[in-house]
Amino acid sequence: MQYMLLIHFEETGEVPSPEEARQMGAPYAAYNEALIKAGALVSGERLQPSATGTVVRVRDGKTEVLDGPFAATKEQLGGFYVIEAPDLDAALNWAARCPSASNGTIEVRPVWPTR
């Protein structure tokens, strides 16, 4: 079964230095490698900051396009993984191993099968 791991974290607006980026990247490289070796990785991407997003809504047949998110939360969606796991417990185990679990939140959701 496929699960999506949604990575939420508090955006500070600060751009990490090249050294900080390398330090943050190393745990993710190891995590990605573990997912690949286990045959669990389907896809995953890091997202640009929420300020770069655009919101689209259709209300009463009219399309509204608005800049930026309007979430009433400190944490924003920063990236995601889609993984294959035999059950929810296995997906939760992968979520706990995600580097962002130590300073953010990993939401685990089953993916509706398309077939």
How would you describe what is shown here?
Belongs to the YciI family. InterPro entries: Dimeric_a/b-barrel, YCII. This is YCII-related domain-containing protein. With 115 residues, this protein is α+β, with helices and mostly antiparallel strands. It has a single domain, classed as Dimeric alpha+beta barrel (Alpha-Beta Plaits). Helix content is 26%, strand content 37%. The protein has 2 helices and 6 strands. It has helices at 18-37, 88-97, and strands spanning 2-10, 41-46, 54-59, 62-67, 75-84, 105-110. It has a 4-stranded antiparallel β-sheet with strand order 2-5-1-6, with helices on one face. Strand 3 (54-59) and strand 4 form a beta hairpin. The longest helix is centred in the N-terminal third of the chain and has 20 residues, at 18-37. It is flat and about 45 Å long. The model has no long low-confidence stretch (mean pLDDT 89).
Gyration radius from CA atoms, angstroms: 16 Å
Please give the CATH architecture: 2-Layer Sandwich
- SS elements, strand count: 6
Oligomer: single chain
Number of domains: 1
Backbone structural class: alpha+beta
Helix content: 25-40%
- Name the CATH superfamily assignment: Dimeric alpha+beta barrel
Shape: flat
- In CATH, the topology is named Alpha-Beta Plaits
Uncertain stretches: none
